[in-house]
Amino acid sequence: MEVKVQEALDKLAGPVGILGASKDGDHKVITVSWFTQVSRFPPMIVVSVSPNSSITPIVSGQREFVLSLLPQEMEEVARICGHTSENVDNKLETSKLSTKESKHVKVPSINEAIVNLECQTVQQHLAGDHSIIVAKILHVDKIDDKKPLIFYDRDLCTVDNSLSK
């Protein structure tokens, strides 16, 4: 039996977040699930986004963004913000997310997030059908003990139990 590459990649579980970027006061957001830590010192992350996304040129031009980790009860928010901007005009308003001023970037942070990572783009590369954005974390805003929303097997899931407790 031949194993299909995409089916195998769908088994890679990951957290779900909202990537926010702003230009001239216009705050755009998208749902992302392809991101991870890539350095501890200095603290850095990598985020993968479609080069066709409406947010990609904003992140490229402004070189800053906020990555907000979503708690598991925000499945509907992830779905709303995951739609294209042509389908959902104002994702923040539609999803009923509230924002606050960030400390080190001009992009607002999400109040309902588990954590907000204020980031500065260090590198950006085209890799296959996605843009890879490497960013330095400038500031961390709040850390909540809620469990994160997870993307697994092409669906949104929750974390049920810790194996070490």
From TrEMBL:
Q: Which residues are in the Flavin reductase like domain?
A: 9-158
| Keyword Flavoprotein part of the UniProt annotation | yes
Q: Into which family does the record put it?
A: Belongs to the flavoredoxin family.
- Quote the Pfam families the UniProt record gives: Flavin_Reduct
Keywords assigned: Flavoprotein
**What cofactor does its activity depend on?**
FMN
Tell me the lineage of the source organism: Bacteria, Bacillati, Bacillota, Clostridia, Eubacteriales
Does the keyword section mention Flavoprotein?
Answer: yes
Record the organism. Answer: Alkalicella caledoniensis
The molecular function terms in GO held by this entry are:
FMN binding; oxidoreductase activity, acting on the CH-NH group of donors, NAD or NADP as acceptor
Q: What is this protein called?
A: Flavin reductase
